[in-house]
Amino acid sequence: MDSDAISSIQTRFATPDDLPAIAAIYAHYVEHSVATFATTPPTDAEWRGWLDSHFGPHPAIVATLDDRVVGWGSLSTWNRRCAYRSTVEDSVYVLADLHRRGIGRVILARLLELAGALGHRVVIGQIADHQAASERLHEAFGFRRVGLLEGVGHKFDRWIDVAIFQLTLP
Questions:
Q1: CB count, 10 Å around CB of 2?
Q2: What is the DSSP string of the chain?
Q3: CA 21, CA 71: separation in Å to the nearest integer?
Q4: pLDDT band for position 114 (50/70/90)?
């Protein structure tokens, strides 16, 4: 994908019509990756509930190219206790055959812009299994690795570490 194609990537808030594409992108990661610790893809009803919970201070967005959803991202509650209300966790997923083409950068940039506009102070990235591309993406936006949770997830018959990355917004 050349720079003209990258500049053609648009982001917008996710709608119910986007859920089949969001679900398909995510299903790949559920079935083939440790980018998520989900072990079965969510049902249609679960996806509707997910979207219903991603509004206001916790939006979900999609990235589109030529009106096709090629990725999605969200800001989620990082911890339910009220003192953490200004801290969110980011999620970024890109269509598996379009990795390393700048789509994740576009999604994360928009999520960080939204986080700042919504008054969040800290964004957390939780990256499983030392995934170098995800770590580099977060570091490119100024995230710092602040911790490592060792062997906290179990998927594909192995224990998986989760690195914690943090960005304090200006």
A1: 9
A2: --HHHHHT-EEEE--GGGHHHHHHHHHHHHHH-SSS--SSPPPHHHHHHHHHTSSTTS-EEEEEETTEEEEEEEEEES-SSGGGTTEEEEEEEE-GGGTTSSHHHHHHHHHHHHHHHTT--EEEEEEETT-HHHHHHHHHTT-EEEEEEEEEEEETTEEEEEEEEEEE--
A3: 9
A4: very high
Average pLDDT estimate for 101-117: 97
Q: Which amino acid is at 67?
A: D
Residue found under tokens 């939204």: 114
| Residue 90, SS3 per DSSP | strand
